[in-house]
Design goal:
Layout lengths: L6 H20 L2 H18 L1 H14 L5 H23 L13 E4 L1 H8 L5 E5 L5 H11 L4 E4 L5 H11 L5 E4 L3 H10 L3 E5 L9 E6 L2 E6 L1 H9 L2 E10 L4 E6 L9 H18 L23
């Protein structure tokens, strides 16, 4: 059992988070980006296990790449985190008039077609690019949506993050009661975004191929799609270096069968395809392959 967090620790972390967000929000964009990169580098140095995890994951996913290339991808991951921090800090200042400076749509017609079915839309997304901005931008430019989120360990920071996530009218669905909330939203033909790229416990998931390595993936999204008839659309906010802004890309709805294991594999393949196109923008520091099939040795 985890030790209870002290109130002093929560308060100190909250004060640091508030100070950083304020600086990133109000500094000129160039200075804010420089500060965020410095923070990301500090994170990299202070917690070396994160890079070790990233390099181990990259070894599994791209065994053909030399170690120098894997290290460059890991560098890009921390640069991607820095970009996300700047945008997250500035969410309260974003509106339909200035949002185009930060993000644009691609493939919006796929969302319109899916919503035209009348049974709701499930966005299958990942910790790729800027997942916070993707939901926020959709809430401002199209219509508010629901986002499935796990409460953070620090309740003060959790409340701070929740306020920012809901400024555009989006509504949060906590993971502890996500099925009921999602089904109600889908019955109203609304959209729900779910991050589906994290490791799952054996009792919650199924093993599917992910970069050629068995990974335990949550089967909940596939089961909800089968039960509700909702369309499942892969969607990601991906950084475009040429445009210096994100592109919120919606892919066509996936062709699912109703079989939870097969559909989960199909969803994870869509996630993998997007990561392969933008490897430096995925959160490789997460221990994605932590849960192993029975009898298999630990990866980390």
């Amino acid at each position: 059992m985890a030790r209870p967090r002290s109130a002093v620790r929560n308060l100190l972390e909250y004060a640091a988070a508030r100070a950083l967000l304020a600086a990133l929000e109000w500094l000129p964009r160039g200075a804010a980006e420089g500060l965020a990169r410095a923070c990301a580098r500090l994170l990299d140095k202070a917690l070396p296990r994160l890079r070790r995890t990233a390099l181990r994951n990259l070894e599994l996913a791209f065994p053909e790449l030399p170690i120098e290339r894997r290290n460059r991808i890991a560098d890009e991951v921390f640069a991607s985190i820095a970009r996300l921090l700047v945008v997250f800090a500035r969410l309260p200042r974003l509106n339909p008039a200035n949002l185009g400076e930060w993000i644009r749509y691609e493939g919006f017609e796929h969302f319109e077609a899916a919503r035209g079915r009348g049974k709701g839309v499930l966005f299958a997304t990942a910790h790729l690019g800027n997942w916070e901005l993707s939901a926020y931008a959709h809430g401002l430019l199209a219509e508010p949506m629901h986002v499935v989120a796990r409460p953070l360990d620090n309740p003060l920071i959790d409340a701070l993050v929740e306020r920012r996530r809901t400024f555009a009218g989006n509504r949060l669905i906590e993971k502890k009661d996500f099925a009921r909330g999602i089904l109600k939203a889908l019955a109203r033909n609304e959209a729900v975004g779910i991050l589906v790229d994290q490791n799952a416990a054996p009792e919650e998931g199924v093993f599917v191929p992910f970069f050629g390595v068995p990974a335990c993936a949550h089967a909940g999204l596939a089961k909800l799609a089968a039960r509700s008839g909702a369309a499942v659309i892969p969607g990601f906010a991906l950084w475009s270096a040429g445009e210096r802004r994100y592109v919120l890309r919606f892919d066509p709805a996936l062709d699912l069968s109703g079989d939870a294991a097969a559909d989960t594999a199909r969803i994870q393949k869509a996630i993998e395809d997007a990561i392969r196109q933008h490897p430096g923008q995925w959160l490789w520091i997460h221990r994605r392959w932590k849960t192993r099939p029975p009898g298999e040795a630990p990866i980390y």
